[in-house]
Amino acid sequence: MSGKKTILVAGGAGYIGSHLNRAAHERGYRTVVYDNLVCGHKSAVQWGDFLLGDLADAGQLRLAFRHFRPDAVMHFAAHACVGESVADPEKYYLNNMAATLNLLCAMREADCRNFIFSSTCATYGIPRQIPIAEEHPQAPVNPYGRSKLMVETALADYAAAYGLRYVNLRYFNAAGADVLARTGEDHNPETHLIPLVLDAAAGRRPRVSIFGADYDTPDGTCVRDYIHVDDLARAHLLALEYLFGGGESGSFNLGNGRGYSVKQVIDCARAVTGREITVIEGPRRAGDPPVLVGGTELAERVLGWRPDFPRLEDIIGTAWAWHKKRFC
Ligand code: UDP
Protein backbone atom coordinates (compact mmCIF):
# COMPACT_ATOMS: atom_id res chain seq x y z
CA MET A 1 0.00 0.00 0.00
CA SER A 2 1.12 3.54 -0.61
CA GLY A 3 1.60 5.80 2.40
CA LYS A 4 0.83 8.82 0.27
CA LYS A 5 -2.77 8.09 -0.57
CA THR A 6 -5.48 10.41 0.72
CA ILE A 7 -8.83 9.26 2.09
CA LEU A 8 -11.74 11.63 2.52
CA VAL A 9 -13.59 10.39 5.61
CA ALA A 10 -17.18 11.63 5.53
CA GLY A 11 -18.50 11.44 9.08
CA GLY A 12 -15.02 10.95 10.51
CA ALA A 13 -15.96 12.73 13.74
CA GLY A 14 -18.53 10.06 14.56
CA TYR A 15 -18.20 6.78 16.40
CA ILE A 16 -16.99 4.39 13.70
CA GLY A 17 -15.46 7.07 11.45
CA SER A 18 -13.19 8.37 14.21
CA HIS A 19 -11.81 4.88 14.80
CA LEU A 20 -11.18 4.42 11.09
CA ASN A 21 -9.49 7.80 10.98
CA ARG A 22 -7.01 6.71 13.62
CA ALA A 23 -6.41 3.31 12.02
CA ALA A 24 -5.86 4.90 8.60
CA HIS A 25 -3.43 7.41 10.05
CA GLU A 26 -1.48 4.64 11.79
CA ARG A 27 -1.30 2.76 8.48
CA GLY A 28 0.28 5.72 6.74
CA TYR A 29 -2.66 7.28 4.91
CA ARG A 30 -3.39 10.96 4.79
CA THR A 31 -6.96 11.56 5.95
CA VAL A 32 -9.35 14.47 5.58
CA VAL A 33 -12.34 14.31 7.89
CA TYR A 34 -15.41 15.99 6.42
CA ASP A 35 -18.10 16.30 9.10
CA ASN A 36 -20.86 18.76 10.03
CA LEU A 37 -20.50 17.91 13.75
CA VAL A 38 -24.25 17.51 14.12
CA CYS A 39 -23.74 14.04 15.61
CA GLY A 40 -19.94 13.83 15.60
CA HIS A 41 -17.46 15.41 18.00
CA LYS A 42 -14.52 17.58 17.07
CA SER A 43 -12.61 16.05 20.01
CA ALA A 44 -12.81 12.67 18.24
CA VAL A 45 -10.80 14.01 15.27
CA GLN A 46 -7.31 13.60 16.68
CA TRP A 47 -5.60 12.68 13.42
CA GLY A 48 -5.41 14.13 9.92
CA ASP A 49 -7.07 17.24 8.51
CA PHE A 50 -10.52 18.41 9.50
CA LEU A 51 -13.05 20.21 7.34
CA LEU A 52 -16.30 21.40 8.90
CA GLY A 53 -18.83 20.74 6.17
CA ASP A 54 -22.17 19.31 5.28
CA LEU A 55 -22.78 16.69 2.60
CA ALA A 56 -25.91 18.65 1.69
CA ASP A 57 -23.60 21.49 0.56
CA ALA A 58 -22.61 20.41 -2.95
CA GLY A 59 -20.47 23.53 -3.49
CA GLN A 60 -18.35 22.94 -0.43
CA LEU A 61 -17.96 19.28 -1.29
CA ARG A 62 -16.71 20.22 -4.73
CA LEU A 63 -14.14 22.56 -3.20
CA ALA A 64 -13.02 19.86 -0.79
CA PHE A 65 -12.39 17.45 -3.67
CA ARG A 66 -10.53 20.10 -5.65
CA HIS A 67 -8.35 21.02 -2.73
CA PHE A 68 -7.51 17.62 -1.24
CA ARG A 69 -7.79 15.42 -4.37
CA PRO A 70 -8.63 12.26 -2.38
CA ASP A 71 -7.83 8.85 -3.85
CA ALA A 72 -10.77 7.31 -2.04
CA VAL A 73 -13.81 8.16 0.02
CA MET A 74 -15.10 6.35 3.09
CA HIS A 75 -18.62 7.32 3.96
CA PHE A 76 -19.75 7.01 7.58
CA ALA A 77 -22.01 10.07 7.81
CA ALA A 78 -25.54 8.82 8.40
CA HIS A 79 -28.38 8.70 10.85
CA ALA A 80 -28.72 5.21 12.24
CA CYS A 81 -31.65 4.85 14.64
CA VAL A 82 -34.34 2.52 13.41
CA GLY A 83 -37.17 3.94 15.54
CA GLU A 84 -36.38 7.51 14.56
CA SER A 85 -36.32 6.53 10.89
CA VAL A 86 -39.88 5.24 11.19
CA ALA A 87 -41.06 8.44 12.88
CA ASP A 88 -39.14 10.80 10.59
CA PRO A 89 -38.28 9.05 7.31
CA GLU A 90 -37.58 12.29 5.48
CA LYS A 91 -34.63 12.97 7.77
CA TYR A 92 -33.22 9.58 6.76
CA TYR A 93 -33.84 9.86 3.05
CA LEU A 94 -32.40 13.39 2.92
CA ASN A 95 -29.31 12.67 4.96
CA ASN A 96 -28.56 9.04 4.18
CA MET A 97 -29.61 9.02 0.55
CA ALA A 98 -29.81 12.50 -1.01
CA ALA A 99 -26.65 13.77 0.70
CA THR A 100 -24.81 10.63 -0.39
CA LEU A 101 -25.74 11.41 -3.99
CA ASN A 102 -24.03 14.80 -3.58
CA LEU A 103 -20.96 12.96 -2.43
CA LEU A 104 -21.05 10.58 -5.40
CA CYS A 105 -21.58 13.51 -7.73
CA ALA A 106 -18.56 15.35 -6.32
CA MET A 107 -16.49 12.18 -6.66
CA ARG A 108 -17.47 11.78 -10.29
CA GLU A 109 -16.59 15.38 -11.09
CA ALA A 110 -13.21 14.93 -9.42
CA ASP A 111 -12.67 11.51 -11.02
CA CYS A 112 -12.28 9.89 -7.61
CA ARG A 113 -13.31 6.25 -8.12
CA ASN A 114 -12.87 4.31 -4.89
CA PHE A 115 -15.69 4.29 -2.37
CA ILE A 116 -16.17 2.38 0.88
CA PHE A 117 -19.73 2.55 2.12
CA SER A 118 -20.99 1.99 5.67
CA SER A 119 -23.96 -0.23 5.03
CA THR A 120 -25.85 -2.33 7.49
CA CYS A 121 -27.38 -5.70 8.31
CA ALA A 122 -30.66 -3.73 8.46
CA THR A 123 -30.72 -4.00 4.65
CA TYR A 124 -31.56 -7.72 5.03
CA GLY A 125 -34.77 -7.17 7.00
CA ILE A 126 -36.16 -10.18 8.87
CA PRO A 127 -33.63 -12.98 8.43
CA ARG A 128 -34.75 -16.18 6.74
CA GLN A 129 -31.73 -18.03 8.01
CA ILE A 130 -28.95 -17.50 10.55
CA PRO A 131 -26.12 -16.74 10.07
CA ILE A 132 -27.06 -14.20 7.42
CA ALA A 133 -24.81 -14.41 4.36
CA GLU A 134 -24.35 -11.66 1.77
CA GLU A 135 -26.60 -13.44 -0.76
CA HIS A 136 -29.51 -13.28 1.68
CA PRO A 137 -32.36 -11.28 0.07
CA GLN A 138 -32.31 -7.62 0.95
CA ALA A 139 -35.78 -6.65 2.14
CA PRO A 140 -35.36 -3.94 4.77
CA VAL A 141 -38.28 -3.39 7.13
CA ASN A 142 -37.67 0.26 8.10
CA PRO A 143 -36.65 3.54 6.41
CA TYR A 144 -33.14 3.37 7.87
CA GLY A 145 -32.46 0.04 6.15
CA ARG A 146 -34.19 1.21 2.99
CA SER A 147 -32.12 4.42 2.82
CA LYS A 148 -28.94 2.32 3.00
CA LEU A 149 -30.17 -0.15 0.40
CA MET A 150 -31.02 2.73 -1.95
CA VAL A 151 -27.41 3.85 -1.76
CA GLU A 152 -26.18 0.31 -2.42
CA THR A 153 -28.41 0.27 -5.50
CA ALA A 154 -27.11 3.64 -6.69
CA LEU A 155 -23.52 2.45 -6.23
CA ALA A 156 -24.09 -0.55 -8.49
CA ASP A 157 -25.51 1.79 -11.16
CA TYR A 158 -22.61 4.24 -10.77
CA ALA A 159 -20.18 1.37 -11.11
CA ALA A 160 -21.82 0.12 -14.31
CA ALA A 161 -22.16 3.55 -15.90
CA TYR A 162 -19.22 5.59 -14.60
CA GLY A 163 -16.60 3.11 -13.49
CA LEU A 164 -16.96 3.78 -9.76
CA ARG A 165 -15.41 1.02 -7.65
CA TYR A 166 -17.00 0.38 -4.29
CA VAL A 167 -17.29 -1.91 -1.32
CA ASN A 168 -20.43 -2.05 0.81
CA LEU A 169 -19.56 -3.06 4.36
CA ARG A 170 -22.67 -4.33 6.09
CA TYR A 171 -22.09 -3.89 9.80
CA PHE A 172 -23.77 -5.86 12.50
CA ASN A 173 -23.73 -4.25 16.01
CA ALA A 174 -20.72 -1.94 16.34
CA ALA A 175 -19.48 -1.83 19.94
CA GLY A 176 -16.41 -1.25 22.11
CA ALA A 177 -13.84 1.53 22.08
CA ASP A 178 -10.22 2.29 21.27
CA VAL A 179 -7.98 0.12 23.49
CA LEU A 180 -6.28 3.26 24.83
CA ALA A 181 -9.69 4.92 25.43
CA ARG A 182 -8.86 7.84 23.14
CA THR A 183 -12.16 7.47 21.29
CA GLY A 184 -15.39 5.57 21.84
CA GLU A 185 -19.15 5.64 21.55
CA ASP A 186 -20.76 8.99 22.40
CA HIS A 187 -24.31 9.41 21.09
CA ASN A 188 -26.81 11.95 22.29
CA PRO A 189 -29.35 10.65 23.06
CA GLU A 190 -27.87 7.21 23.61
CA THR A 191 -30.05 4.32 22.46
CA HIS A 192 -27.59 1.43 22.20
CA LEU A 193 -27.55 -1.42 24.64
CA ILE A 194 -23.91 -1.55 25.77
CA PRO A 195 -23.44 2.17 26.61
CA LEU A 196 -26.83 2.18 28.37
CA VAL A 197 -25.83 -0.85 30.45
CA LEU A 198 -22.52 0.83 31.30
CA ASP A 199 -24.38 3.99 32.27
CA ALA A 200 -26.34 1.90 34.76
CA ALA A 201 -23.08 0.37 36.03
CA ALA A 202 -21.63 3.86 36.46
CA GLY A 203 -24.70 5.09 38.37
CA ARG A 204 -25.66 7.48 35.59
CA ARG A 205 -28.97 5.69 35.03
CA PRO A 206 -31.08 3.89 37.62
CA ARG A 207 -31.69 0.80 35.53
CA VAL A 208 -31.70 -0.84 32.11
CA SER A 209 -34.89 -2.00 30.42
CA ILE A 210 -34.76 -5.27 28.55
CA PHE A 211 -36.86 -4.79 25.44
CA GLY A 212 -38.70 -8.08 25.50
CA ALA A 213 -37.90 -11.30 27.40
CA ASP A 214 -40.45 -13.46 25.60
CA TYR A 215 -38.62 -14.06 22.31
CA ASP A 216 -38.07 -17.52 20.94
CA THR A 217 -34.39 -17.49 21.92
CA PRO A 218 -32.50 -19.52 24.57
CA ASP A 219 -33.10 -16.98 27.38
CA GLY A 220 -36.04 -15.13 25.84
CA THR A 221 -34.07 -11.95 24.96
CA CYS A 222 -32.86 -10.76 21.55
CA VAL A 223 -29.59 -12.06 20.20
CA ARG A 224 -27.21 -9.73 18.36
CA ASP A 225 -23.77 -9.94 16.79
CA TYR A 226 -21.51 -7.39 18.52
CA ILE A 227 -18.39 -6.44 16.60
CA HIS A 228 -15.55 -4.34 17.96
CA VAL A 229 -15.25 -0.90 16.38
CA ASP A 230 -11.51 -1.32 15.79
CA ASP A 231 -12.23 -4.53 13.89
CA LEU A 232 -14.65 -2.56 11.73
CA ALA A 233 -12.02 0.11 11.18
CA ARG A 234 -9.43 -2.43 10.09
CA ALA A 235 -11.90 -4.01 7.69
CA HIS A 236 -12.28 -0.64 5.95
CA LEU A 237 -8.57 -0.47 5.27
CA LEU A 238 -8.50 -4.04 3.99
CA ALA A 239 -11.46 -3.26 1.73
CA LEU A 240 -9.72 -0.17 0.41
CA GLU A 241 -6.50 -2.05 -0.25
CA TYR A 242 -8.56 -4.74 -1.96
CA LEU A 243 -9.97 -2.07 -4.32
CA PHE A 244 -6.55 -0.49 -4.83
CA GLY A 245 -5.27 -3.96 -5.69
CA GLY A 246 -7.85 -4.34 -8.46
CA GLY A 247 -10.56 -6.19 -6.49
CA GLU A 248 -14.09 -6.14 -7.85
CA SER A 249 -16.83 -4.03 -6.30
CA GLY A 250 -18.95 -5.98 -3.85
CA SER A 251 -20.51 -6.35 -0.42
CA PHE A 252 -19.18 -7.90 2.78
CA ASN A 253 -20.75 -8.57 6.14
CA LEU A 254 -18.78 -7.43 9.16
CA GLY A 255 -19.73 -9.23 12.33
CA ASN A 256 -18.43 -11.55 14.95
CA GLY A 257 -20.18 -14.58 13.53
CA ARG A 258 -21.62 -15.33 16.97
CA GLY A 259 -24.56 -13.96 18.86
CA TYR A 260 -25.08 -12.77 22.42
CA SER A 261 -28.42 -12.20 24.10
CA VAL A 262 -29.36 -8.99 25.90
CA LYS A 263 -29.12 -10.90 29.20
CA GLN A 264 -25.65 -12.23 28.28
CA VAL A 265 -24.51 -8.68 27.55
CA ILE A 266 -25.79 -7.49 30.92
CA ASP A 267 -24.19 -10.41 32.80
CA CYS A 268 -20.91 -9.82 31.00
CA ALA A 269 -21.06 -6.11 31.91
CA ARG A 270 -21.61 -7.04 35.56
CA ALA A 271 -18.52 -9.27 35.45
CA VAL A 272 -16.35 -6.71 33.61
CA THR A 273 -17.33 -3.71 35.76
CA GLY A 274 -17.81 -5.47 39.11
CA ARG A 275 -20.82 -3.18 39.59
CA GLU A 276 -24.49 -3.74 40.30
CA ILE A 277 -26.71 -3.29 37.26
CA THR A 278 -30.44 -3.07 37.92
CA VAL A 279 -32.59 -4.52 35.17
CA ILE A 280 -36.31 -4.49 34.43
CA GLU A 281 -38.03 -6.54 31.79
CA GLY A 282 -40.11 -4.31 29.55
CA PRO A 283 -42.09 -4.69 26.35
CA ARG A 284 -40.57 -5.52 23.00
CA ARG A 285 -39.23 -2.68 20.86
CA ALA A 286 -41.02 -2.44 17.53
CA GLY A 287 -39.04 -3.78 14.58
CA ASP A 288 -36.53 -5.88 16.55
CA PRO A 289 -35.88 -9.28 14.91
CA PRO A 290 -35.23 -11.96 17.58
CA VAL A 291 -31.82 -12.96 16.21
CA LEU A 292 -29.31 -11.18 13.95
CA VAL A 293 -25.98 -12.90 13.40
CA GLY A 294 -23.80 -12.38 10.36
CA GLY A 295 -21.89 -14.89 8.30
CA THR A 296 -18.47 -13.36 7.66
CA GLU A 297 -16.81 -16.09 5.62
CA LEU A 298 -16.63 -13.84 2.55
CA ALA A 299 -14.77 -11.04 4.33
CA GLU A 300 -12.40 -13.62 5.77
CA ARG A 301 -11.73 -15.29 2.43
CA VAL A 302 -11.58 -12.24 0.14
CA LEU A 303 -10.32 -9.47 2.43
CA GLY A 304 -8.33 -11.61 4.86
CA TRP A 305 -10.30 -10.07 7.71
CA ARG A 306 -10.99 -11.67 11.06
CA PRO A 307 -11.96 -9.93 14.27
CA ASP A 308 -9.06 -9.28 16.65
CA PHE A 309 -11.53 -8.74 19.52
CA PRO A 310 -14.14 -11.48 19.19
CA ARG A 311 -14.68 -11.88 22.97
CA LEU A 312 -17.60 -10.00 24.45
CA GLU A 313 -15.49 -9.35 27.60
CA ASP A 314 -12.98 -7.43 25.49
CA ILE A 315 -15.63 -5.50 23.62
CA ILE A 316 -17.37 -4.47 26.84
CA GLY A 317 -14.02 -4.03 28.62
CA THR A 318 -12.79 -1.42 26.14
CA ALA A 319 -16.18 0.33 26.22
CA TRP A 320 -16.01 0.40 30.03
CA ALA A 321 -12.51 1.92 30.05
CA TRP A 322 -13.79 4.69 27.74
CA HIS A 323 -16.88 5.14 29.92
CA LYS A 324 -14.83 5.35 33.14
CA LYS A 325 -12.45 7.86 31.61
CA ARG A 326 -15.35 10.22 31.00
CA PHE A 327 -17.76 9.56 33.84
CA CYS A 328 -16.21 7.78 36.83
N1 UDP B 1 -31.96 -3.26 23.94
C1 UDP B 1 -32.56 -3.44 25.18
N2 UDP B 1 -32.61 -2.34 26.01
C2 UDP B 1 -32.11 -1.12 25.66
C3 UDP B 1 -31.49 -0.97 24.40
C4 UDP B 1 -31.44 -2.07 23.55
O1 UDP B 1 -33.02 -4.51 25.54
O2 UDP B 1 -32.21 -0.18 26.47
C5 UDP B 1 -31.88 -4.43 23.04
C6 UDP B 1 -32.52 -4.21 21.67
O3 UDP B 1 -33.88 -4.55 21.72
C7 UDP B 1 -31.70 -5.15 20.79
C8 UDP B 1 -30.31 -5.16 21.46
O4 UDP B 1 -30.51 -4.66 22.77
O5 UDP B 1 -32.22 -6.46 20.84
C9 UDP B 1 -29.31 -4.27 20.76
O6 UDP B 1 -29.93 -2.99 20.55
P1 UDP B 1 -29.13 -1.72 20.06
O7 UDP B 1 -30.08 -0.57 20.10
O8 UDP B 1 -27.86 -1.60 20.85
O9 UDP B 1 -28.70 -2.07 18.58
P2 UDP B 1 -29.58 -2.50 17.29
O10 UDP B 1 -29.67 -4.01 17.36
O11 UDP B 1 -30.90 -1.83 17.38
O12 UDP B 1 -28.76 -2.03 16.15
List the helices and strands and how they pair.
Layout: E1 6-10, H1 15-26, E2 30-35, E3 49-52, H2 58-68, E4 72-75, H3 82-87, H4 89-110, E5 114-120, H5 143-162, E6 165-171, E7 173-175, H6 193-201, E8 208-211, E9 223-224, E10 226-228, H7 229-244, E11 250-254, E12 260-261, H8 262-273, E13 279-282, H9 297-303, H10 312-327
Parallel strand pairs: 1-2, 1-4, 2-3, 4-5, 5-6, 6-11, 7-10, 8-13
Antiparallel strand pairs: 9-12
Helix pairs in contact: 1-7, 2-4, 4-5, 6-8, 6-10, 8-10
Bound molecules: uridine-5'-diphosphate.
Overview of the molecule:
This protein is α/β, with parallel strands linked by helices. It folds into two domains: 6-175 and 226-254, NAD(P)-binding Rossmann-like Domain (Rossmann fold, 3-Layer(aba) Sandwich); 193-224 and 257-327, UDP-galactose 4-epimerase, domain 1. It contains ten helices and 13 strands. The strands form four sheets. A seven-stranded parallel sheet has the order 3-2-1-4-5-6-11, sandwiched between helices. A two-stranded parallel sheet has the order 7-10. A two-stranded parallel sheet has the order 8-13. α5 links the parallel β5 and β6. α1 (15-26) packs across α7, α6 (193-201) crosses α10 (312-327) and α8 packs across α10 (312-327). It starts with 5 loop residues before the first strand and ends with a helix. The model has no long low-confidence stretch (mean pLDDT 96). The structure holds uridine-5'-diphosphate (UDP). Uridine-5'-diphosphate is lined by residues 82, 173, 191-193, 196, 208-211, 222, 224, 262, 285, 288.
